[in-house]
Amino acid sequence: xxxxxxxxxxxxxxxxxxxxxxxxxxxxxxxxxxxxxxxxxxxxxxxxxxxxxxxxxxxxxxxxxxxxxxxxxxxxxxxxxxxxxxxxxxxxxxxxxxxxxxxxxxxxxxxxxxxxxxxxxxxxxxxxxxxxxxxxxxxxxxxxxxxxxxxxxxxxxx
Length: 158
Known about the structure:
five-stranded mixed β-barrel, four-stranded antiparallel β-sheet, 9 strands, about 15% helix
C-alpha cells in the first residue's frame, strides 16, 4: 500500500526504580519516520525522558524488535503520571483523575485496573501553569500522587 503509515513498537530499556515496577523494558507504539527513526505515539508509563510525539532513533535486533536509542527531536509535549490515592476523595478511580484534568484537554491512558496510574500527555501549547497548580492542589488535598517524567523548559518556567 503506497503512503501507508507504518506503526511499530519501539522498546526502551531502563534500570528499574526501587519500590516501583520490576520491569526493565517498555514498548511504546510509534510511527516510523525514517529507516531508523520513529515518532512515539503514546504516553509512557515507565520510561522517563520521552513524550508522545518525540522522535527517537532505534536499532532493530535479530528478532525484529526495535530498540530505542537517543531522542533526536522533542515534540514539546510533557508526560505526567498520576496515581489516585486509594483512601482519598477520588478513591482508585482513573476516571475521576481524568475528570479533574479534563479542562486542560489532556490525553491519557490507564496502566491497569489493579494499578490505576494514568499517563497523560500535556501538549506543548497546554496551560502548563494551570496544570501544575491543579496537580499541586490535588497532591496537597490527598487526591493523588504525581510525577512529571518528561518536562520541557516551557513546563519548568510555567
